[in-house]
Write a structure and sequence with these properties.
The complex is a heterodimer of chains A (about 190) and B (about 220). Helix content of chain A is about 70%, strand content about 0%. Chain A contains 8 helices and no strands. Chain A has helices at about 10-30, 40-60, 65-90, 105-110, 115-130, 135-145, 150-155, 160-180. In chain A, helix 1 (about 10-30) runs antiparallel to helix 2 (about 40-60), helix 6 packs across helix 8 (about 160-180) and helix 7 crosses helix 8 (about 160-180). The longest helix of chain A has 28 residues, at about 65-90. Chain A is elongated and about 70 Å long. In chain A, about 30% of the residues are buried. Chain B has helices at about 5-10, 25-35, 40-50, 50-60, 65-70, 90-110, 115-120; strands at about 135, 140-145, 155-160, 165-170, 175-180, 190-200, 205-210, 210-215. In chain B, strands 1, 3, 4, 6, 7 and 8 form a 6-stranded mixed beta sheet that branches. In chain B, strands 2-5 form a two-stranded antiparallel ribbon. In chain B, a hairpin with a 5-residue loop joins strand 6 (about 190-200) and strand 7 (about 205-210). Classes of the chains: A mainly alpha (about 190), B alpha+beta (about 220). Chains A and B meet through helix 1, helix 2, helix 3, helix 5 and helix 6 of A and helix 1, helix 2, helix 3, helix 4 and helix 5 of B.
Chain lengths: ~190, ~220
């Protein structure tokens, strides 16, 4: 066992950063994570803070500290969210087989003509998006998932103006192709 | 009936499905931080655009980057060892081999289900071996967890319920840790402590346990 002696001043600085992380994390989880699974920002925070604290106390000689703590914090956050999601799903489906079923959009879950019409529309849109050039398809789907062009740029390894331009062209092509398939637009 | 762009985006919003195909948390975190190579980044993106869970997890962590950049300068930096005491950097062949191994391991992790990866490595996520609801005496606070296998060593962190650090240890060879009694002096009678374990293997792999909560008496 190797209980390491701790420098109180260093510990205080680490604790302050971890405390701040907790606050940022709570806001991010509250904003982006679904409420229907009962995911509580406080629960995510406790698990993730513990992970970050352990990592900060453990590591030394890190060349790019900002990048390192971002990765550790992001990984800890995702882990904590996933654990809680899994726990909630178990509680919601105690006798289930562990594989959550696909969740249909609310509108599609209804029965009748409208649901069928929406299903056909979805198939048409999916086919058109799949037919776009790969990067254009990605950017359209990222847009649909709610990512901003700044976030898209970071994920795609490009600049924000390039991502914005790509999205603009991709949506234009998507609309054009859907028109060719007989879909009419509000405002056309 | 005319449709709007919002209709189209609503239709394209990905469903929630089984998590078995999702990339590991660390891979998503590295995608957010930007250091993935092109091929791996494309695989992650191809998944994220069709997985509502991964998309929301990724969106939840993207705002942390600004915090990390602001927080880094305020963290203590440990003194670097003198140059002579540092290990010699491996030659480029060793780096290339390590990189190839990392890519292969990453690809394996990415494709396989989490439990399958664990089975392939013959290791397991540590879980607490303390009886459910048991209370430990502060003079004999022995935390025990399952052996992760594969010659793992363990790092353990113990905190108060309000996440104040109480004790930590590293390099433990056995899956247990006795929390020093003085470290628990500030914890009130009947209060809970939270603790977690990280298993570390000689090849550098690490797995963190969930957080456990134990009552003191």
């Amino acid at each position: 066992m190797t209980d390491e002696p701790r420098d109180p001043a260093a510990e205080a600085r680490i604790a302050a950063v971890v405390e701040e992380y907790g606050q940022v994390l709570r806001r991010a989880v509250a904003r982006h994570c679904p409420r229907h699974l009962g995911l509580q920002p406080d629960d995510v925070e406790q698990d993730a803070r513990l992970r970050l604290l352990a990592a900060l106390r453990r590591e030394s000689e890190i060349h790019d500290l900002a990048s390192y703590i971002y990765r550790v914090a992001a990984s800890a956050t995702i882990d904590a969210i996933r654990r809680l999601k899994a726990r909630r799903e178990e509680q919601l489906d105690p006798g289930g087989d562990g594989e959550p079923g696909l969740e249909l959009p609310v509108e599609a879950a209804g029965s009748g003509e409208r649901a069928l019409e929406r299903r056909r529309l979805l198939e048409k849109v999916e086919a058109v998006v799949d037919g776009l050039e790969a990067r254009r398809g990605q950017v359209v789907r990222l847009h649909a998932q709610g990512f901003t062009t700044v976030e898209m740029a970071r994920l795609m390894g490009t600049t924000e103006p390039a991502a914005r331009n790509l999205l603009h062209r991709a949506l234009k092509e998507l609309r054009q192709r859907l028109r060719e398939r007989g879909l009419t637009y509000a405002g056309d | 009936m005319p449709v709007t762009d919002d209709d189209l985006l609503g239709l394209l919003a990905a469903p929630r499905g089984p998590r078995s195909a999702c990339p590991p948390a660390d891979t998503l975190a590295r995608a957010a931080a930007g250091p993935l190579d092109t091929a791996e980044r494309e695989r992650v993106l191809d998944h994220v655009v069709r997985c509502a869970d991964c998309a929301e997890e990724l969106r939840a962590v993207l705002p942390l980057e600004a915090w990390a950049a602001a927080a880094a300068p305020r963290l203590p930096r440990r003194e670097r060892r003198p140059a002579a005491a540092r290990r010699r950097p491996p030659r480029w062949t060793a780096w290339a081999a390590a990189a190839a191994l990392a890519v292969a391991a990453s690809a394996l992790l990415w494709r396989a289900e989490g439990p399958a990866v664990l089975r392939a490595r013959r290791v397991a996520l540590p879980h607490s071996l303390l009886p459910e609801g048991a209370a430990l005496a502060r003079g004999a606070c022995r935390l025990r967890w399952s052996d992760a296998g594969g010659g793992a060593r363990y790092a353990v962190s113990v905190l108060s319920k309000d996440l104040r650090p109480l004790a930590a240890a590293d390099g433990l060879e056995r899956p247990e840790y006795v929390v020093p009694a003085p470290a628990l002096q500030s914890v009130p009678e009947g209060a809970e402590i939270v603790w977690s374990v990280e298993a570390r293997w000689p090849d550098g792999h690490r797995l963190a346990s969930p957080t456990f909560v134990t009552r003191l008496r």
